[in-house]
Amino acid sequence: MSFQAPVLKQIPGIRHEFSRIGAAPPANLFFCSQAHTGEVVEASTTLPSGIIRGDAVFTRTGRPIAVITADCLPLLISSDDASWIAAVHAGWKGLHGGIIDNVLQHFATKGIAAHQLHVAFGPSIKPCCYEVSPEFVDTLAATQGHLWPQAQTPWSQERPTPQRPPEIAPPSPTRPDSLWFDLSRHALHLLHAAGIDDEQIEHCEHCTYCSSPTLASYRRRGHRGEEKSFQYSWIGRA
């Protein structure tokens, strides 16, 4: 079973899916050569996928668009009239590099304001399984710490409990000073700062590492020696 988000299902003319491993994508799907950047690409109606570098795809055509993930956060976005849509590959590097602001600026150039958007979060690694170092946190805090209150940092010293009962054991900590990073909360703070309210956002509780073996996880693959796998998160206009 793949995922759909009510916040997008309610928009006439939009089809979408957060897939599981092995799910067949729609025909003629367009995606970029992802490089953990803040780059946004307007989808081509003719070029094959995987040629143009970028980490978000933006379109008003009928060609479905996608991002590919295996722990990073996929975001699917639509205007409320379904005139423009976007798919975003939101790893920590892309979020740190401005991918959220860049995508919203593309909508703004088409006359679509932040309050007219609907955003669906797909499965990603959750803080129960996303171990990071103090140095990693220092890098984020130095440049983006002004975006969140002290009590709502997108990391914690205490390891959170999985949001869903795990089917796979979360990884053991590798160092005594580890912190636990919440990629979705990081994205949420950036969306809030850009003017998008909670009512416009649909969250996903599934952790790609521990919730299910049918979700791809780069970290789990490294820990357990699994075969390389990934999932598509795609959106299209009817």
From TrEMBL:
The keyword Zinc applies. Residues 151-175 are annotated as: Disordered. It catalyses: inosine + phosphate = alpha-D-ribose 1-phosphate + hypoxanthine; adenosine + phosphate = alpha-D-ribose 1-phosphate + adenine; S-methyl-5'-thioadenosine + phosphate = 5-(methylsulfanyl)-alpha-D-ribose 1-phosphate + adenine; adenosine + H2O + H(+) = inosine + NH4(+). It comes from the Bacteria. GO terms for molecular function: copper ion binding; S-methyl-5-thioadenosine phosphorylase activity. Residues 151-160 have a biased composition (Polar residues). Residues 162-174 have a biased composition (Pro residues). It holds the Pfam family Cu-oxidase_4. Keywords: Metal-binding, Transferase, Zinc. The keyword Transferase applies. Signal peptide: none annotated. Belongs to the purine nucleoside phosphorylase YfiH/LACC1 family. PANTHER family: PURINE NUCLEOSIDE PHOSPHORYLASE, UNCHARACTERIZED PROTEIN YFIH. This is D-alanyl-alanine synthetase. It comes from Pseudomonas chlororaphis. The lineage of its organism: Bacteria, Pseudomonadati, Pseudomonadota, Gammaproteobacteria, Pseudomonadales.
